[in-house]
Amino acid sequence: MQISEVAKEFGLTTDTLRYYEREGLIGPIAKGKNGTRNYTEEDIKRIQFVKCMRAAGLEISFLKRYIKLFEEGDKTVKERRKILVEQRKILKEKLDAMQEAYNRLNYKIDLYDKNILDKKLM
Amino acid sequence: MQISEVAKEFGLTTDTLRYYEREGLIGPIAKGKNGTRNYTEEDIKRIQFVKCMRAAGLEISFLKRYIKLFEEGDKTVKERRKILVEQRKILKEKLDAMQEAYNRLNYKIDLYDKNILDKKLM
DNA sequence: TATTGACTTGAAGTAAACTCTAAGTGATAT
DNA sequence: ATATCACTTAGAGTTTACTTCAAGTCAATA
Questions:
Q1: Model confidence, pTM
Q2: Distance, CA of A117 to C1' of C18, in Å
Q3: CA A115: distance to chain centroid?
Q4: Averages of pLDDT over each 10 residues, chain B, 122 residues
Q5: Å separating the CA of residue A15 from the C1' of nucleotide C29
Q6: Which of the nucleotides in strand D have any atom less than 7 Å away from a protein CB atom?
Q7: Is A56 on the interface with B (CB under 8 A)?
Q8: How far is residue A15's CA from residue A21's CA, in Å, rounded to a whole number?
Q9: What tens digit of pLDDT does each residue of A79-112 get?
Q10: Any bridge partners for residue A78, and if so which?
């Protein structure tokens, strides 16, 4: 699979894919004899993971660190678990904050729908 | 209430509060005779709203637009409702993506806890 | 009275995550 | 054969949201 196809499938740009590779989040991707990238199924799975975590707001620096540990093998299992738990906590807090904002938006839209125009901003 | 107290209450810096004011998200805050800001209860409520929405990832530019419309009065009600619905949609998509990442993290941590060390990254 | 601490300003600086540019290569369509 | 198109690189530029800086004011305390 070549870069533009992968980009299309994931809704990323080719620039972003090359950027992730530069940063060590994916790859290095094997290249054909003309120098173009050929993404394997393994590469695709990695991109899936990275995309999911990025969409959740996890930082590139964290993903870099986690992937590096993973590549260092079994001896890093304990540390990997630890940072996953860390990230889960951060993510949970964000989720809760977002849920609160979501509820607030719902409430306000509901007021608009009922034509209750109070003079409060929110 | 003066700026440092407000900052402390909301876990923001005084710089951020002045920045929000510059951008028109809050205030203009009334100043005492020595030129320092005095935040009213109204100001505090506005900051609460802004903080909640920012924590959910809504952009400054959106908040600016919404607040401007609000200040233009009842004639902007329709447009306000429209952009709230827009933002709610964006927020919902983010929430879902984050929930997915959260579940994935949970699943992986669970594997670590059970000492099932598969060789997959995620 | 001198110094400390919190405040003020406008403007410049920073971090994260892309995004774009310029210059070039190689395979395919006219 | 020539033009078009997708790809390559290194490196510069952009956006968003702050954050820091430099220089100054004012009130209170040692």
A1: 0.91
A2: 41
A3: 39
A4: 97 98 96 94 97 98 96 93 96 97 96 83 81
A5: 27
A6: 6-9, 16-21, 25-27
A7: yes
A8: 10
A9: 999 999 999 999 999 999 999 999 999 999 999 9
A10: none
